[in-house]
Amino acid sequence: MIRTFPIQTPRLYLRQFAVQDAARAYDNWMSDGDVTEFLSWETHRSREESERTIKNWVLSYEFGTMDWCITLLKQKQEPIGSITAVQDFPDKGYCELGYCISKDHWGKGYMTEAVKAVTGFIFQNTDYTWIQARCDSENHGSRRCLEKCNYKHAADLDLPCAKRKGEIRTYSMMRIDRRDTVMI
Ligand SMILES: CC(C)(COP(=O)(O)OP(=O)(O)OC[C@H]1O[C@@H](n2cnc3c(N)ncnc32)[C@H](O)[C@@H]1OP(=O)(O)O)[C@@H](O)C(=O)NCCC(=O)NCCS
Q1: How many structural domains comprise the chain?
Q2: CB 100 within 8 A of CB 44
Q3: Containing structural domain, residue 42
Q4: Which residue's alpha carbon is at the smallest distance from atom 3 of ligand 1?
Q5: Is 95 within the bounds of a domain?
């Protein structure tokens, strides 16, 4: 079962990752501490680390994972970010979005475009009734992006952050319900 089918938006092309993307993914965002500041994973220290991560994503596609490589429509070979639907609790009827894009491409509306497209794709191609995304309460860009995609604030949760040695952080839980997607 494959779920990561290509998605085209006005300016982006979302496609499956290939192992060959690893070096550019490392250079473009996986090695950048500003990109990973609010993410759960540590900044990558080598191209091999990025290659291992991407290899796992590629091997998992056949099990129905959703891990898209974000590229510009004009330059489909160059990976500039990722957007993933984590399906930890599929029988509870939802999945959770995670995403990041290289710093060179921040503030151009690209992630809003990607999140809208992936949200629509998930509701069209799965039975999930809602999609969740969580952002650190200081990650204002991510929250704003989700709001622009019609995600609503559902709750704030104080949770320990493993990457910050268990420091308690406040996370804004954002969600969109299938019935609200007519607005997208
Ligand atoms: C958060 C992130 C995904 C936003 O992507 P982006 O492509 O720059 O977002 P967009 O250009 O679509 O902007 C969406 C909105 O957020 C606003 N925004 C973006 N960055 C912002 C920031 N740092 N502070 C405040 N607002 C910000 C934009 O201005 C826009 O709102 P507007 O149209 O009302 O002006 C990107 O900065 C990123 O990859 N950050 C690092 C990884 C990360 O934090 N991922 C999310 C984890 S929950």
Answers
A1: 1
A2: no
A3: 7-129
A4: 100
A5: yes
